UniProtKB/TrEMBL annotation:
Keyword Nucleus in record: no
Protein name per its UniProtKB record: Uncharacterized protein
Species assigned in the record: Collybia nuda
Ranges annotated as spanning the membrane: 42-58, 78-95, 266-285, 297-317, 323-348
Signal peptide per UniProt: 1-18
Keywords from the UniProt entry: Membrane, Signal, Transmembrane, Transmembrane helix
């Protein structure tokens, strides 16, 4: 949690210094200082939502034991970059994990007092069978949980599970308040017919997806680094539960659901709906003022590609020829990545030429707590 707030501190210092440079154009177009915002205010509010809230919304699985801090940071940074380029994939992962956790919880007797936090913890590699830091320790499979519950080896309360989480009420409150404020002030600008920048639209798309991601992972412990080690049950005590299934994973990938196969047929539909909605938000600036026609058409084409990619990809995957399918998928994926990068770049470059009213604030939104 300290990493995003460190970024916030240095970014805030940079923005505060930059407000005294010639780059701040608010004085040229906004005379009422009580209702003005600078270009750096726009950038700052957007960066907080895009970077900090995205970082805090990601709930990775427990990392492989024995790895150093640099490796763990690189793992988290990679997930963060993936969330910036393809946030809809992160939502699909969160959906799969939520479904898997809910299905596991449904199989647990109510008298065990298990919660979604327990189920998430089990699916993220939270329980390992064997001695601490042993190379032979392996992750407890969901099929084995019933027998281990009866044995008393999983008698952990929700507080025990959440105690291992790096998230807390302050973290969750920060994400909810900051994202809520950002969306509310954009709605207020639209109601008062004040211009909204392309960067704010891009941030809105991330904010909406971050809200969905955070809701799906609300009960999942955040940034847990160490699992709970438990002793194995003797074979004769399994009572036919299939405990010794041959499942011997020692770690999970950062977003593995903890199951071998998908537990739901809704995954493809969820991915398409979320991705089309994400691309659709980028189509909002279709008629906005752009510095040049080239930038306007680049934005339009990038928005269309972003929205059209999800429905087209299943068709490409159904191609009979494996060679042709590989070529088509590679081409479409490359085109999608280029479109996403172009939209991100344009979101910042278009700030160099904003209409005067873009610097006007909706006064009452400044009283809502935010950074």
């Amino acid at each position: 949690m300290s990493i995003p707030f460190t970024i916030l501190y240095f970014s805030s210092a940079l923005c505060a210094h930059a407000q005294f440079t010639d780059f701040d154009e608010s004085d040229k177009s906004c005379r009422d200082l009580g209702h003005c915002r600078s270009i750096w205010d726009i950038i700052w509010s957007c960066l907080v939502v895009i970077f900090t809230c995205t970082w805090l919304a990601i709930h990775p699985n427990i990392p492989k034991q024995g790895k150093g801090r640099l490796w763990k940071f690189g793992r988290s940074a990679g997930a963060f970059i993936a969330a910036l380029i393809a946030p809809e994939v992160i939502i699909l992962t969160a959906w799969e994990q939520r479904v898997a956790a809910q299905e596991l919880l449904n199989t647990i007797p109510k008298e065990e007092n298990w919660t979604l936090s327990h189920a998430f913890f089990a699916h993220m590699g939270g329980f390992m069978i064997g001695e601490r830091d042993s190379d032979e320790a392996y992750i407890l499979h969901p099929m084995e949980i019933g027998a281990y519950l009866r044995s008393g080896r999983l008698s952990f309360t929700q507080e025990d599970i959440q105690d291992k989480s790096k998230g807390d009420s302050l973290t969750k409150g920060f994400v909810v308040i900051q994202t809520g404020w950002f969306i509310l002030q954009l709605i207020a600008r639209a109601v008062e017919r004040l211009p909204i920048t392309e960067l704010e639209i891009t941030t809105l798309a991330f904010a909406i997806l971050n809200c969905v991601t955070y809701a799906l992972w609300w009960h999942k412990p955040l940034d847990v680094e160490r699992p709970i080690y438990i002793d194995a049950i003797p074979f004769e005590d399994t009572q036919g539960d299939g405990v010794h299934t041959g499942y011997s994973k020692t770690s999970l990938s950062i977003f593995d659901s903890g199951i071998d196969n998908s537990q739901t047929s809704w995954n493809g539909l969820v991915f398409i709906i979320v991705a089309v909605a994400f691309g659709g938000v980028h189509c909002i600036p279709w008629s906005f003022q752009f510095p040049t026609h080239a930038e306007k058409w680049t934005w339009r084409i990038g928005s269309i590609i972003t929205a059209a990619f999800p429905p087209v990809m299943p068709v490409a995957l159904s191609t009979q020829s494996s060679i042709l399918r590989t070529i088509i998928v590679f081409f479409l994926f490359s085109l999608y990545v280029l479109a996403r990068l172009a939209l991100l770049a344009l979101a910042f470059t278009t700030l160099r030429s904003l209409p005067p009213d873009a610097y006007t604030t909706v006064h009452w939104t400044t009283f809502i707590p935010h950074i």
